[in-house]
């Protein structure tokens, strides 16, 4: 067994080199490449090179929103919220929140006979400023979000739709892509809270890198 001798600080860099090598001749859109590769890196799954879907100009437009600061990323799990890089978030004057444990969300879900994830989307609709929705677990969050969009109660700057699983997962992603709002979606059953966080991070890293290069 031959182990690679890689310094701790170089492990991520080497991982991305391996990803590029194993992608071979598959060409990724340069605008989306860093996002797709970070999803692959997070999940060790090369299916993300083929299952990611982006609405028109979504990366460029999302970076413009982030550049202006004051945005809120709403996640459907605490795991996704914790996974979002707070240093990058602070640099861009944004914040990340998860409402799943909030008492008012629990009460609202119980009264409506819905999931807490769905109730979280209702609370997200009350926020001021640009809102990015990052869903990595609950299809019910995306389904309720679509209803709120059609009711004119929320207009997200971006919806990251990557819930993982079997029940209504594929359908909820299709609903997002037909909702008329900017989206980044992993079609099919794959996804997860870690993937949702990685997409948020990839967008922020892309923007901060571009800002550093301009200096």
Summarize the structure.
The chain contains 11 helices and 6 strands. The protein is an alpha/beta fold and 215 residues long. Strand 4 (131-135), helix 9 (139-150) and strand 5 (158-161) form a beta-alpha-beta unit.
Essential attributes:
11 helices; globular; alpha/beta; 215 residues; single chain; 6 strands
Structure description:
This protein is α/β, with parallel strands linked by helices and 215 residues long. It contains eleven helices and six strands. It has helices at residues 11-23, 33-43, 48-51, 58-67, 78-83, 86-91, 103-112, 116-124, 139-150, 169-177, 193-214; strands at 52-54, 72-75, 95-98, 131-135, 158-161, 183-186. Strands 1-6-5-4-2-3 form a six-stranded mixed β-sheet, sandwiched between helices. Helix 1 (11-23) crosses helix 2 and helix 9 runs parallel beside helix 10 (169-177). The chain starts with 10 loop residues before the first helix and ends with a helix. The mean pLDDT is 96.
